[in-house]
Fold this protein.
Amino acid sequence: MRTRRWTRSPRGTIFGVATGLAEWKDLDPRMTRIIVFLIVLLTGLFPGIVIYLLLAIILPQQTAGDEVDGEDPIDVSFEEADDEESLRREYEDLRRRMKDVEERLNRKERRGS
């Protein structure tokens, strides 16, 4: 899964910081956890653990609106339609995508208020 921003993932092992980073950058979560663990270990534990805990406090928890479903809701391309039925399907698909964008925008506005 991929996310739009760095958030704490509910699928994470310890606070979800490393898994959230992996999902944001579309990396392997296990490898990301190992790299983060090695960085914490090699920094003498103290600075690495403090930074990790600060990130756990600062980063927001992941929500459904943060997930990227593989398609850009703004990128709409109309195929050449030979009949009225295919035009109707394209129109309904566009309406569905625009409704999804509007719902995401409303969620972001509510969070910002």
